[in-house]
Amino acid sequence: MGSPMRVVALRRYPVKGLGGEGLASVPLDGRGLAGDRWFAVEDDDGRFASAKDTRRFRRRDAVLGYRAATASDGGVTVTDGTDAWRVGDAALDAELSRTTGASVRVTPEAGVPHQDMGAVSLVGTATLDWCAAAWDLDADPRRLRVNLVVETTEPFAEERWVGREVECGGARLRVVERAPRCRTIDLDQDGAVARGRWLRPLAAERDLCLAVYADVVRPGLVTVGDPVHEVAGGRLTS
Asked: Is 0.90 surpassed by the pTM of this model?
């Protein structure tokens, strides 16, 4: 099967739309990475702040200037690089309302799931390297806002896992679909500078898709350095 694959990076986004945090290890549950996108910035219409406009999201680029991280006590802290606020603090809601120009607040997941199309997002290193070389851009995975980066040797190998299951450390994932992309990929965010435009060549050559979404079929702990491999007979059936 070639060189063994392994997890080389884990990233969690405690507040949807904001920058995230790198992790050495994290449990996966039915929602994905524990605590991932549990909070979101919500307006008075119930739409979530994002860098795009859809039925669920309202474009508010200002949120990309913040990062969220989980404190040792389990609470979440948001920072703009200078000041910091705790989720649940009225001062944080006031700050975000000021910079977005709308009445918003940070809320936990309730009736509307905060995840997009899958519990976990994943991309291979060979895919990132190919994009960087072919399209002369900085293929920083933070631009994709993915949860897992897996060391691979063949570009877009992860797309062949759609409809299959993979073991990832102590967890098992079912890869369900390719991940469609929007303008967010070409914006500075989460400490990554968007050098080179990704969206146009993706539209021309890759159906606007990059990375994959997966659901968790067996919860477990995933740690940087853990092996990743396909499950024999793990193909989905209709």
From this structure: yes
